[in-house]
Design a protein that fits this description.
Largest sheet: 6 strands, mixed
Helix content: 40-55%
Structural class: alpha/beta
CATH superfamily: MoaB/Mog-like domain
Number of helices: 6
CATH topology: Molybdenum Cofactor Biosythetic Enzyme, Chain A
Radius of gyration: 15 Å
Number of strands: 6
Mean pLDDT: 95
Length: 170
């Protein structure tokens, strides 16, 4: 299997208030900025699409179902807490074929040691078809923390996903 010629990315911001234009989405653009820097540094060609939706299970589910196998990566931001409108984790988990729990567990433990509130994020990661999905909290601080760790593993994750053997190569 070969790596894609161009990586396609979808960033989904879930926020009732941002969708209603009560405030600007800052988290989605921050994910775009960090991810674009990483993809460029790897020499990987890419396109990044972004959308802001309300906290809607139906809209999120439809976007992921339409995007699975069409996008290489889907990142969500928002809706990973324990509030009554936080539906991201339940919605995405039903659509995953394989969960990748280690990365999100590590992030919660690492950042939760200093900020116990970080332990309340229920973000998950996994594969839906051939699409890697990461669900991040909605705050800028959390996006920075999560992306710092995700980007450290993303190259290896992609190589594993496409069956590129790097064992023994450093």
């Amino acid at each position: 299997m070969t790596l894609p010629d161009k990586y396609r990315v979808l960033i989904i911001t879930l926020s009732d208030r941002a969708a209603n234009r009560e405030y600007d989405d800052l988290s989605g653009p921050r994910i775009r900025e960090l991810l674009a820097g990483f993809l460029s540094s790897e020499g990987w060609d890419y396109d990044i699409d972004s959308v802001v939706i309300p906290d809607s299970e139906e809209k999120l589910s439809n976007l992921i179902m339409d995007g699975r196998n069409r996008y290489n990566f889907i990142f969500t931001t928002g809706g990973t807490g324990i509030g009554p409108r936080d539906i991201t984790v339940e919605t995405v988990s039903m659509l995953l074929d394989r969960e990748i729990p280690g990365i999100m567990d590590f992030i919660r433990i690492k950042y939760g040691a200093e900020n116990p509130g970080a332990l309340l994020s229920r973000g998950i990661a996994g594969l839906a078809g051939r699409t890697l999905i990461y669900t991040l909290p909605g705050s800028l601080r959390a996006v920075d923390e999560y992306m710092a760790e995700i980007l450290k593993t993303l190259r290896h994750t992609v190589l594993m996903q496409y069956g590129v053997d790097t064992h023994g190569k450093h």
